[in-house]
Amino acid sequence: MSISLQLQQITRNLPAQVRLVAVSKFHPASQLQEAYDAGQRIFGESRVQELVEKYDQLPKDIQWHFIGHLQVNKVKYIAPFIDTIHSVDSEKVLNEIDKYAGKFNRKIRVLLQIHIAKEEHKFGFYTDEMGDFLKKEYPNVLISGVMGMATFTDDEKQIRKEFKCLANCFRQLKTSYFSESDSFTEISMGMSDDYPIAIEEGSTMIRVGSKIFGNRF
Ligand SMILES: *Cc1c(COP(=O)(O)O)cnc(C)c1O
Questions:
Q1: pLDDT score for 119
Q2: Where do runs of H (alpha helix) occur along 67-133?
Q3: Cα separation, 53 vs 191, whole angstroms
Q4: What is the percent of the chain with per-residue pLDDT over 90, rounded to a whole number?
Q5: pLDDT per residue over 57-72, tens digit each?
Q6: Which pLDDT value is given to residue 21?
Q7: Does ligand 1 have an atom closer than 6 angstroms to the CB of 159?
Q8: Where is pLDDT greater, at 40 or 130?
Q9: Is 65 in the pocket of ligand 1 (CB under 6 A)?
Q10: CA distances in angstroms from 11 to 14, 19, 40, 66, 163, listed in the order given
């Protein structure tokens, strides 16, 4: 099926509060352009160099989201244009984003990546690690919510349990740290194989790649 038909199929049934991030990593700019021509404006990439190259080639009204692990020393390359970073997994990277957003006179939206899967992931906060650094002021960052990835499994119950856990974590953080904030509103969860479950469990942003663009090589 074509990119535009896949996009139509996904967006047709999307509740109004849910946005689609088209995850275009490893796919050539021509395919992103095809999705853009079909109306898609939010794209997600997971590698800094690839993202910068695509940013240079593609229309400037694209809203770019970074979804991969972000090394502290690479923040400066995407800070001039990135809209949202889904994968903040340390206080250090949060400080760096704040610093460079300030340098470029911008505000960057970020999400806190949370461990929800059974698998050992290398990156993301455990829920009991969230602490005092969230009370600090980050003048150039809008902490906008949470992001998580469910276990890679066919067990729907397990996936649902993990998404519920992320939604709970969102509510707890909101109560504890962001009750005064208008911008803490996003739960980024759901990929090609599990996004319908994620939407049922309260997702506000789904990150869908292979279902739109086909397999990555
Ligand atoms: C690659 C990736 C996706 C998209 O995965 P698909 O299964 O292709 O939809 C979503 N989120 C993150 C963090 C990713 O790395």
A1: 80
A2: 75-78, 91-103
A3: 24
A4: 91
A5: 999 999 999 999 999 9
A6: 98
A7: no
A8: 40
A9: no
A10: 5, 9, 10, 21, 21
For the purposes of burial, counting CB atoms within 10 Å of the CB of 5, is it exposed (0-12), middle (13-18) or buried (19 or more)?
A: exposed
Say yes or no to pLDDT of 31 above 80.
yes
Residue nearest to atom 6 of ligand 1 (CA): 209
Q: Please state, in angstroms and rounded to a whole number, the distance separating the CA atoms of residues 47 and 50.
A: 6
Q: What is the pLDDT of residues 132-164, one digit of tens each?
A: 899 999 999 999 999 999 999 999 999 999 999
What is d(CA 215, CA 17) in angstroms, rounded to the nearest whole number? 28
Cα(136) to centroid of ligand 1, in Å? 31
Mean pLDDT in residue range 172-197: 96
Q: Residue 39, Cβ neighbours under 10 Å: how many?
A: 10
Q: Does the beta carbon of 46 lie inside 6 Å of ligand 1?
A: yes
- For ligand 1, atom 4: residue with the closest CA: 209
Cα 217 to ligand 1 centre (Å): 14
Distance CA(127)–CA(114), nearest Å, equals 7
Question: Can you state the percent helix, strand and coil of the chain, rounding each to 5?
Answer: 40, 20, 40
Q: What separation in Å is there between the alpha carbon of 107 and the centre of ligand 1?
A: 25
Give the tokens for residue 76. 């400066």
Ligand 1 pocket member 67 (CB < 6 A): yes
H runs (alpha helix) in 15-86: 29-37, 48-57, 75-78
CA-proximal residue: ligand 1, atom 12 (nearest): 67
- Going from the Cα of 69 to the center of ligand 1, the distance in angstroms, rounded, reads 12
Mean pLDDT of 44-54: 98
